[in-house]
Specification:
Blueprint lengths: L2 H13 L2 H8 L3 H15 L4 E2 L6 E2 L1 H28 L5 E6 L8 H11 L4 E6 L2 H10 L4 E4 L8 E15 L21 E4 L8 H11 L6 E4 L3 H9 L4 E5 L9 E4 L6 E9 L5 H15 L10 E2 L10
Length: 314
């Protein structure tokens, strides 16, 4: 088994087609097929189901794909890092994020990183929470800031805070009247807008799960791709939407805090398990410092702070 075979297999797995993979790799199809066959013979297991269109990976093939992708990306990262050190180039830190974290602490954190480490090249990559897991394992990003909990054993997770959810309403909605706070039961029979539409699971599934747990049934559920679209549709009186408190972006909407301790959305810092890179502790320390400053968006009315592994700031 060599790196070339791993790259061949990853290309086939990505395209699900030997012809397209051979074109992508600039080799003829027969030698490509032969290398995959030799790889399967060496492993003693079938990796690809060839009789399906498009091709499908076996369970062993899916596991092998994830590991192969990590190895290839780590080798690319090794090459890049070595060249950067040898050429005295700036070090790169890639941060994955879900869009809603831009309305909370992420911009402040990035500013602090730039202030403390001016020679660090920071790259921001917008990814869903689940996409961040794959990107971490492949080496595409170094840390992630997402909102969906997972049980992936190769990823370390720190819940930085639980952000309370608010109900976004058009100004003329009857739900804007009366008590200051809303409840999840107020969504019964309402037209609900959720996001993102894909990939799943996502924040949309988190919201729907909260309602399902209490047997609350909207009259219809409209799925959209992003939060800006969801809030625009609320402004157009096409429905209502649950969002994290920091995402109260539009001043033409009415927002009501949900009076339910379960109606929160976590902000989760993720990184590869056993990653001892200096940037992990640096980010944890900067987040702790940032929280200690008590910025306006971090008010206790809209946030819950669980016990975490962040450093304690005096």
């Amino acid at each position: 088994m060599d790196v070339r075979q791993l790259k061949y297999f990853v290309a086939v797995a990505n395209t699900r087609n030997f012809t397209r993979a051979s074109e992508q790799l600039h080799i003829a199809q027969p030698p490509l097929s032969r290398q995959i066959q030799l790889l399967e013979e060496e492993l003693g297991v079938q990796l690809i189901l060839r009789n399906s269109r498009p091709l499908r990976l076996t369970d062993a093939g899916r596991s092998f794909y994830e590991q192969a992708l990590q190895i290839i990306n780590r080798l690319d990262q090794l090459k890049s890092t070595t060249q950067q050190i040898g050429l005295n180039q700036r070090q790169t830190l890639s941060i994955g994020f879900v869009a809603s974290t831009l309305y909370g602490g992420l911009p402040m954190l990035v500013r602090k990183l730039r202030q403390h480490y001016p020679d660090l090249d920071i790259k921001l990559v917008e990814l869903t929470s689940m996409q961040q897991l794959a990107a971490l394992k492949s080496g595409r990003i170094d840390v992630g800031f997402g909102r969906i909990r997972s049980n992936d054993a190769s990823v370390e997770r720190i819940v930085l805070r639980e952000e309370r959810l608010v109900l976004a309403l058009p100004p003329d909605s009857p739900l804007t009247k009366g008590a200051r706070q809303a409840t999840l039961k107020d969504l019964e029979g309402q037209k609900l807008i959720v996001y993102p539409k894909e990939p799943r699971p996502s924040f949309a599934d988190h919201v729907l799960s909260l309602l399902n747990d209490q047997a609350i049934h909207p009259s219809e559920v409209h799925e959209v791709r992003e939060i800006q679209t969801a809030l625009g549709l609320v402004a157009a009186e096409s429905g209502i939407c649950l969002i994290p408190a920091s995402a109260r972006l539009r001043n033409d909407l009415h927002y009501r805090l949900i009076d339910d301790e379960r109606a929160t959305s976590p902000v989760i810092l993720t990184h590869r398990i056993n990653d001892n890179g200096w940037h992990i502790e640096a980010i944890k320390q900067l987040v702790a410092d940032m929280y200690a400053e008590k910025p306006a968006w971090l008010d206790v009315e809209h946030n819950v702070f669980p016990k975490s592994d962040l450093p304690q700031t005096p």
